[in-house]
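Protein record

Derive tokens from sequence
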Amino acid sequence: MADCNGCPSKDNCTSKDDCMIKDNPNSNVKNIIGVMSGKGGVGKSTVSAMIAEELNRKGFKVGILDADITGPSIPRLLRIKDKKATANELGIIPVTTEDGIKVVSLNLLMEDENQPVIWRGPIIAGVVEQFWTDVLWGELDYLIIDMPPGTGDVALTVMQSIPISGIIMVSVPQDLVSMIVSKAVNMVRKLNIPVLGIVENMSYINCPDCGKKIRIFESDNTLEFLKENDLELLAELPMCKDIANVSENGNEILNQEIKEIFKNIGETIMDTLN
């Protein structure tokens, strides 16, 4: 069991008697942020990678734990090529990007990233737990966890065995998706983990001629969703080629609007957790 004094969640925890948080003696992580959706395909991994890069740009020591075992995409989003995670007698050594972000993902342990992971839930959950307990994360200011979609075994394992400081939700402005994300919000709150806010992806399109924001979906759905779930809107992200191509071209190609959005998200995280 973990020492509560070293747990980022200690101030919000109400379950000390039956705590399942696991220690990692080879790591000293100050803040752990889960990025979650409840629904796949909404850009959760992209948001995770871009938040990590923004915090890294601000001078913090950052790592990413890719907990989406059956759909790992963090290595590609961070443009990690021809590198594999290694291990020694102490544990797994994460891959470090050119910018200094430490990364662990199942794709960094597989010979062929195109091969599927055909495992049952308990095995997947066990691997995610090992990505926390058996990895030599060292000194980190922020560890970002790219959560799997849904509210099942793996998400539950992450939230019960890793001392998460807070969760950022990712959604898109559709009523059906909002309903599914609400389930994830309620799950997080039942486990007494703070929801830091929501990032709405694919929120609008910028007209290439006049620059006007064109909203494809009804904005009333978003406002109602935020009010019903008592959530803070951290950011609205547009649909654009820059974000879609970030895995190939890097975040250097992002326009000033998107850079400013993630700069603000990073500052909100810093203000909330520090």
Remarks:
- The mean pLDDT is 88.
- The CA atoms of residues 242 and 255 lie 7 Å apart.
- The first strand starts at residue 27 and ends at 36.
